[in-house]
Amino acid sequence: MREFEQLLANLDIKLFEKIYSQSSDNDKKSLLACQLATRYLTPNYRYLEIGSYIGGSIQPHLLDESCSRIYSIDKRPAQQPDERGVNYKYSNNSTQRMLDQLKQVAPEKTDKIICIDGDTREIDPAKIQEKVQLCFIDGEHTDEAVYSDFQFCLKTLDQNGAILFHDATIVYNGLAQIIQYLTYEAIRFRAYNLPDIVFVIEIGDYPLHQSPPIMERLINNHVGYLASLQYNDYYRQFANKPIFRTYRAIRSRLQGGHTCE
Questions:
Q1: How buried is residue 220: exposed, middle or buried, by Cβ count under 10 Å (0-12/13-18/19+)?
Q2: Is 37 within a domain?
Q3: Cβ distance 193 to 214 under 8 Å?
Q4: Into how many domains does the chain fold?
Q5: pLDDT tens per residue across span 17-70
Q6: Which one, 81, 121, 226, 250, has the greatest CB density within 10 A?
Q7: What's the CA gap between 87 and 78, in Å, rounded?
Q8: Which domain CATH number covers 191?
């Protein structure tokens, strides 16, 4: 455990090395920073994750003695829709495969994992028998799904807690809808982005942001900001292909040109 404590304190991404995770190195560090802050605010915290696939983002919590329970929710689809306009495939996507992978990480600790297969739109939140303090949403990457996943997490979250979202650059419209909902319902919250594309919403009085590792990442917010813009830069590259530039030039001339004042 001494080694784990040191690795976590250093935000060392070796904690992700046994099971492949699709997140970037910066994302992994941000997730570890949130974990570090959570265990400080809530010793024996409980963690809920939506979209676990093979367990890559679960492994640091599995190793953490301060994490008393892990809830893993996944529809386990062979493929699922995505706001980028294509369906993404997930080969051999099963709960048993994930558990087999996690047993390679810490075989004596997998009994603290409770797995629920299904869509949060169809799962009774009462199945989460203990309030959780930290949620991570990384399931279906559509605005509709991220909003429904958020609503599920909100019902299972403790009075004070945090909800993390991966791939904020894809589901940003869903995130905007979530912020609008929280504002309308007068639910106390703070929201911010961590590099590269991890979006954090603190609910109630749960100041993860006061943790030095998170504060450092917030102060240097250019890292996440530029990463988010560059992530979607291929849309600009596509829009600037010669055929589209020619179309815009012709349209501009027909409309009398573009004047800047």
A1: exposed
A2: yes
A3: no
A4: 1
A5: 999 988 999 999 999 999 999 999 999 999 999 999 999 999 999 999 999 999
A6: 81
A7: 10
A8: 3.40.50.150
